[in-house]
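Supplementary Text 2. Reproducibility record for the structural model of the 128-residue chain.

All settings were left at their defaults, and a single model was retained for analysis rather than an ensemble. We include the record here because the model underlies the residue-level annotations in Supplementary Table 4.
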Amino acid sequence: QVELVESGGGLVQAGGSLRLSCVASGHILSTNAMGWFRQAPGKEREFVARIRWSDGSTAYAESVKGRAIISRDNAKTTMYLQMNSLKPEDTAVYYCARSSTFYRDIYAYIQPSRYDYWGQGTQVTVSS
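Retained model, structure tokens:
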């Protein structure tokens, strides 16, 4: 079992910044990658960013590229998402997720089905 707990969401004005955190506990040694997804009301859950646990390599959705930075701590128990220049369209519930499967194709981690554990989510609201 793996438990993921997100924090750091809140209300921010457009142009502002937020740093989301995801603390992982339990059987985390089998982690291959972790990712951030978001879901706005009435929309499907969409990929935001992912980080490969072994080497720290990252990938981002086009919608956040240049504005987001995904990272992890050296202990490999916490993942972060720094979001800058926030826009109203970034408003959503943000979820962290863990994948225990290695995929050579970096784009494989874009699909929510590639992840086996999910957090409860943290709300991010960006006002215009």
